[in-house]
Structure formats: structure tokens, C-alpha cells
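Annex B.
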Amino acid sequence: MSMNPFLEKFDTPFETVPFDKIKTEHFKPAIEAAMTEGKAEVKAITDNAEAPTFVNTVEALERAGSKVNIVAGVLSNLNSAETSPEIQELAKDIFPMITEYGNDILLDEALFARIKAVYEQKEALSLSAEQTTLLDKTYKSFVRNGANLNDTDKQKLREIDVALSKLSVQFGQNVLADTNAYTMHLTDEADLEGLPDQVREAAAMTAKQMEKEGWVFTLQYPSYVPFMTYASKRELREKLAKAYAKRGCQGNDNDNQKIVKDFARLRYERANLLGYATHADFVLEQRMASTPKVVENFLNDLLKHAKPAADKEMQELVSYAKKLDGIEEMQRWDYAYYSEKLKKEKFNIDDEMLKPYFELDKVIEGIFAVAKKLYGLNFKANADIPVYHPEVKAYEVEDEEGRHVSVFYADFFPREGKRNGAWMTSFRGQKVVNEEEQRPHVSIVCNFTKPTETRPSLLTFNEVLTFFHEFGHALHGMLASGNYESLSGTHVYWDFVELPSQIMENWVFEKETLDIFAQHYKTGESIPADLIQRIKDSANYMQGYQTVRQISFGRLDMAWHAQDPRNVGDIATFEREVGEETRLFPESKENNSMSCGFSHIFAGGYSAGYYSYKWAEVLDADAYEYFQENGIFDSKTAQSFKDNILAKGGSEHPMVLYKRFRGKEPSPEALLRRAGLIESK
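oligopeptidase A: predicted C-alpha cells.
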């Protein structure tokens, strides 16, 4: 075998991952060597003859196993963004090994005894707020992973954790396989009625790549969403929508129905083993929301305001569809089509009108300009930084004084090896070791509309919002400024992590922002002021519906995780019962399952946490009102947000950090005002 690049110092700009040298066969030897090194570092802690201290025990453990994090991070990110059958097999093999490695540490009695000794004297140690947080988090991570269990129960916990690790990988691979397996091949141009030229051209390109005549549509978002929004042929929208809804629940080799039940059952049993009533009780102990009851009340309160608005919106939409096309019963595959038509009629605005002003390259320039105005950042493309796919762009990021801040990767377009959706991730976190700072390497991954042979990539308004959202997460990672990697950047309470991302979306609705980058890709003309006003006027369009939809996802998540799931029989029946109060469409006669494709909670870390999107909206609406009061590019407000939120990561409790920025606790009324669900001030 050639030299393993993982086991050498990375000889690349800013010690970035040498993707150009890494081969599939490097991963397993690298992770085995990294785990051996990590275990030796842990053994050095437990063998230390000196009395346990914060530095020789807690801080030493924080530093241990850094190579494991690097190798595992690269594999995990490739498995999401540029996977292959070989990578998928490696993931199935290696991730359970990493789980075992983690359990070996968390169930090490000698190590826990040292940590407990430090924890029990923490009041006398004169620790900083950040050190206190690290000590608390470390101690609780051991307790929450079975350190106080007897040997029999520790073994049970190990078995559950390995099983959960395998299920997570398999769930994600099954959804991706079903997504990639389906295509809708059309050869009659009449079937394309209503579709914009760019959508037709993209479908023709897909067909050409598959060596087929005509047009091919897939379940990838940039293909699926435009078809559902613009295709006039109702029966074809129905066909595509049903294919999307069946991902993971078709009774084939990719079926997730048993996996979902096993997942929920094992999480419940794990929580019980650790002394918690449910998985949600376990998870929420370390969230701002704190208990399932708080989440339930939060979602119910939102529903009380949103459901009447959603019912009114749907009544209007049903009447509109009936008047337009004689539709007697609104189905899920009708919603995007008729809501887009009604939006255009009410506000004289639609995506096709806006897309010419959102050329991807211009949006990139614009988002970098916003980051400079707010936080003094400069982005410079660097072709010498290796990337994992030719479409990925790499940038070095500097502050106003020219100091290195971060490396930033951007991966914008769908591929067969990339899962759906958009996310931020990192290849290296920020930390300080021996007074030397390691700056972060951060990435965003999206699935935006690809350029065609005749047009550049033109984004929908929602894609622009998505870009700003993920870039907000990236700023959280890039501007991290702490001592410990496990507390820096996005390592925060899960219901706080969406604040930096969701607040960024607000700038997209502002004329001051759009004037920076929204220019027609052909003429260079700036987006007209009246079009910007129409964007603002339409911002609350269907907000009742959208809010109820998000609440329904949050409730489904809690239904799986805030009670005993072992009695769930048929999943579709279970989902119908859970969704009764949030239902806005007729009951489906198909035996589909939202849960079987719900990657957020079964493969993405959001179990008992999907509510956090709405929770963070309360935070971001309240925080953005502060920006509006002072000016959306006010340097003092931006500096405070950077210093107290973005730079601090999880070094202190999020409410402490938020109040330091805002001067008060957040008010839910700010969100309800923004959504038009209560009167404005």
C-alpha cells in the first residue's frame, strides 16, 4: 500500500485534508492507528500517579483522540457528499468501530474515577466559565453514557450503541438508494406544460446523461421541486409525489420500516437503562427546552396561533384551485402548484420572475460582501487547497487585518453520490493547544439548480435563503474563538444551533442587501425596488401553512421519542393518529410513511430535537428585531453578535450568551409578529 496520508502531517495549505492523495483503502488502517493512539493517550491519563486535576485529566481527555476525529470526519462527510459503494461499505464497517472506541473511553472506570474526583471539587478550583462548562459536559457525558451502570448494563449499553450506529448508516443509505433509483422519463413534450425553459433544459440534460431521448425528472430537489411547482399535468405531479413519499417504505431492499421501529425501541431502552423515562427526557436534559412537556407546550402554543391561519389559507387555495381547474379536493401534490399560481396572482411575483436576478456567482459575491460588512471577513479563492470533487470550491478567509480566520469549502450542485438537502459541516474544528491556535476548516453542501448549456446557475428565492442559512452555520464555525474544540463553533445546545443560521435569512428580504448582488444575469440591471417590495409583501404568504407543517414534523418526532414506542404497529396508522390535529390535506389512501424518509431524526442528529427549528426562529426573530432597531449593518450590533454568540460557541449556557447580546430573554411574540400571526407593534 502507498503511504497513508492520514498518518502523516498534512503538507497542504493550512494543513487542509489532502483529498487528492486519500484513497478508499487508507481509511481503515488510519482509523485503527488513530484509535490505538487515542487509547494510549487515555491510558496515560489513567496511569498518571499525580492526583487528578482539571489539566491532567479533563483537559488531557479533551485533547486525546484528535486523529480519530479527523479520519472519522472525512469519512462521514464523504459518505454524505460524495459517496460510493466502497465508501458506504467502509462506513458500515468503521462507524460501529468508532462507537466501540467511544464506549471504551466512556465506560473506563479508572478514567471516570479521576473525572469524578475533579468534578466533586469544582467549587474550589477557580475555573473559568469555559473550563467549568467543559468539566460539567465531560462529567455528564460519562454519566449519560453509562459510567454509573453495573457491568451487565454497561454491556447492554455497548450493544445498543453499536446497533444504533449501524441502523443510522443503513437508514441514510436506504433513503439515498431509493432517491437515486427513481426516474420519470417523459418523451411527449405536451407533458412538460407549465414548466419553465430552464427546468426543461435541465431535464433534457439529465436524459442525455442517461443516454435517453426526451426528458428525465428525478427525486433530487432541483428536479423534484420545480416539477411539483410548475407542471400542469396533475397526474404526473401525483406520480412523482407518490414516488417521493414512498422512499424507504416500498417493501424492497431499501425498506426502513423495521429500522425505524428498531431505532425508536433501542433509543427508548437505552434511556430507560440510564434512568430516564424516555429518549426525549434523556436528550432534552441538555437543551434549552429542558423537558418534553416544555416542547409540547411550545408546539401547542404555536399551533394555537398558526392553525386558524393555515385553515384560512387552505380554504382560499381550495377555492382558487376549484375556480381555476375545477379541483374538488386539494391533494398534497396540488399544493405547490396552486400556491405558486395564487402567489403570483396576489403579489405579481414568482420564482421565474426572480431567478434571473440570482445568478449563483453573484449570490456568492453578495454573501461574502454581507460577511464583510457585518464581520470584516474577506474570502479569497485558493485553487491550491485540495477538494473532494471538481465542483467544490475552496476559499481562505481573512479578517480586516489580513489574519487567517478559516478555510471555507462550498459544494453547490446535486450528484448521484450526494444526499438531498443542504447542510454545514467541518473537517477541522477550532481550538488552542499550548498557546497555539488551530483555525477551523468549514464546509457547506447544497443541492442547487445546476447551470445548463445556455444558462448559468440561477437560484430560486428559497435557494438563496438556503444559502444564507447554511452560511450562517458556517460563520458560527469560522468565527469560533475558544480553547476547546468540543465547545467551539456549532458545538452548542441543539435548540440554539439554528440561531446563527436562521438569523442570516432575514438579510435576504432587505433592499440594502439585495442591492449588493441581485443583478439580472443578462443585462446587469439591479433588481427593481418594486420587486423587492413585492418580496417583502409576500414574505408571510402561507406562513400559517408552513408553521403548521413544521409543527407536524416536531410532533411526529416527539411521538416517536417522548413515549414508549414499542407498541407502534403499522407506521402509517401511527402517523395518521399523531398528525390528526395538524392535518391540512385529505387522509392518504397510500401506505406511505414520512418516518421512513425522515433523515433528520433517524440519520441526522435531530431526534427529540426537530422542534428546535421553530425554537430557534423565536430566538432569531427576537435577535433580528435588535438589528432592525439599530440598523441591519450596524457595526456595534454585529460586533456584539459576533463576540457573544458566534465566537463563544458552547462555552457557556446559551441563555447567558443570548442575554449578554440582547440584554433580555427572547420573546415568542417577535416570531408571531414576523409571521403575521399576531398584530405588529
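The beta strands are 183-186, 215-218, 378-381, 393-398, 404-411, 423-428, 431-433, 436-438, 441-445. The longest helix spans residues 292-325. Further annotation is deferred to the next reporting cycle.
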